[in-house]
Design brief:
The protein is built from ten helices and ten strands. It is an alpha/beta fold.
Length: 287
């Protein structure tokens, strides 16, 4: 029978073993059972967000009424339909014919940092791709869904802005910063986050004396700029930026303190830099 978990503030390591020990219900009529989940890391790389070795969490499982989660989802959808869709029928009718978003947003897959919720994007405003650690692979690397999204949004949808959004306490960056040497060939996570290797190296060069958490915070921001620099390595992106029809932006969402830092790539200033030495930025602001 399918079990649905209601979990708050639990993060999982790349590889883990799951042990569960059930306690007896309070009474024969009780439907819910308490289960202890002991997460034990099986690899050296911590979390997506933190180590889970020897930590025990209490999780409530409903094994009989397995529709609760989707009942809540149903109510949210019906509220959207009533208050958003029905009140904006003309807008959604136009979206049925075509989309013309102004933004391509590259954000992290982390459940705590949904860009539409944080920045208020409405249907049709932002073409969005989310991956672990909001990374942009180099133009020369093999095909990925992120590169497909870049090609489609820039060359077919003609977006005017690309916004790369990083965030605080990023588990993907923590995994990257925790790696020793080359990625394990059996780890999808390690083989993906190594995309941000240059950000890790630049962080280690200037912040190796800092506490690990502060190193990760530094790398979270450095990774955004390295991704922006990689975007300029795509010929059709660089051409549009040079002609002024496309702008590149970085954003950093600190969800702990609820602040958002935003900046724009200074293309002319970046051209004067030695290749691989970073980008110039302008119009930096904190919201």
């Amino acid at each position: 029978m399918i079990a649905f978990f209601t979990v708050k503030a639990i993060t999982f390591p790349p590889n883990f073993l799951l042990k569960e020990s059930f306690t007896s219900p309070a009474s024969p009529s009780a439907r819910r059972k308490s289960v202890n989940l002991q997460l034990m890391a099986s690899g050296k790389t911590p979390g997506l967000t933190q180590e889970a070795n020897d930590r025990t969490y209490d999780v409530t499982i409903d094994r009989e009424n397995n529709t609760d989660v989707f009942d809540d989802m149903k109510h949210r959808f019906l509220a959207f339909k009533k208050h958003k869709y029905m009140d904006n029928l003309e807008h959604f009718k136009n979206l049925a014919d075509a989309q013309a978003p102004k933004f391509l947003v590259i954000a992290c897959a982390d459940s705590r940092v949904c860009p539409s919720a944080v920045l208020g994007f409405q249907p049709g405003e932002a073409f969005t791709v989310r991956n672990i650690a909001n990374l942009v692979p180099s133009y020369e690397s093999g095909p990925t869904e992120t590169k497909a999204a870049l090609e489609f949004s820039v060359n077919f949808l003609n977006v005017e802005n690309i916004l790369v959004i990083g965030h605080s306490r990023c588990g993907g960056i923590q995994a990257l910063m925790s790696m020793k040497g080359e990625p394990d060939s059996s780890s999808f996570i390690q083989n993906w986050v190594i995309t941000g290797k240059k950000a890790k190296e630049s962080t280690k060069a200037v912040a190796s004396s800092l506490h690990f958490d502060h190193q990760c915070q530094h790398c979270e921001k450095a990774s955004i700029n390295h991704s922006l620099e990689k975007l300029l390595g795509y010929p059709w992106i660089e051409e549009k930026v040079r002609k002024g029809s496309l702008s590149l932006h970085g954003g950093y969402y600190d969800f702990v303190n609820c602040t958002f830092e935003k900046w724009t790539v200074d293309y002319e200033g970046s051209r004067g830099k030695k290749e691989g030495s970073g980008i110039a930025v302008k119009n930096r602001s904190v919201w």
